[in-house]
From TrEMBL:
Keywords: ATP-binding, Nucleotide-binding, Transport. Gene3D superfamilies: P-loop containing nucleotide triphosphate hydrolases. The lineage of its organism: Bacteria, Bacillati, Actinomycetota, Actinomycetes, Micrococcales. Pfam families: ABC_tran. Residues 6-228 form the ABC transporter domain. PROSITE patterns: ABC_TRANSPORTER_1 (PS00211), ABC_TRANSPORTER_2 (PS50893). SMART domains: AAA. This is ABC transporter ATP-binding protein. It comes from Demequina muriae. SUPFAM superfamilies: P-loop containing nucleoside triphosphate hydrolases.
Amino acid sequence: MADPIITATGLTKSFGPTQALRGIDLTVERGEVLAVMGPSGSGKSTLVHCLAGVISPDSGSVVLDGTDLTALSPDQRAKVRLQRIGFVFQFGQLLPDLTATDNVALPLLMAGRSRRAANTQAIAWLDRLGLGDQADKSPGSMSGGQAQRVAIARALVTRPAVLFADEPTGSLDSVSSESVLGAMLEVVRESGTTVVLITHDARTAAYADREVIVRDGLLSGAYASVPA
Ligand SMILES: Nc1ncnc2c1ncn2[C@@H]1O[C@H](COP(=O)(O)OP(=O)(O)OP(=O)(O)O)[C@@H](O)[C@H]1O
């Protein structure tokens, strides 16, 4: 039965004269892994930033897990992001000199958990991502694939409703990329986390349940709406 966790309706967004989004309707089902594909500059990041409440569309609405993000102030949206959304980027989100455990524990400490509880959770997530024996190493001394697993653990440790992953394996070779995507998909399937995955790469998109294609600020193709 359909159980949407994100419902976006009529999204438009311009930056000066550039119309980045020109009227997008999109529904993401709870527990679904959705790939967002499209050429460079087509509007993928702008769409995902609107879906995650990072920016507000010029018109249209985004309801995420029952909350209308477009009715909230920037501060309220920031709170929703902290509590219900995880992010993984291509690189740059980890503190390279802290240990993997400290990196993953950080969002829990920011949410007010004790150091002891945060570390226990962090180590458990590192373990789930195959890094149980790397918990005391710093991402700066790890391979790119290992560091991305730490980033994924950090994004999931707060048990977000939705994980937004923007080219999460874009800086990895194909073997590491497949291994990291496989590990990520295993833990999100286990935890029932919804994933919105931006990618240029068809092999990466193949890990998703469904793909949508953004072209010139519009969704194109037959995959834009959930099959009946
Ligand atoms: N903050 C901004 N200021 C001005 N123009 C912007 C801004 N953000 C995006 N744009 C423009 O909006 C359009 C869509 O950009 P967007 O980053 O969403 O595309 P994309 O599909 O994610 O591209 P890429 O795959 O290269 O990351 C582009 O023409 C881009 O130059």
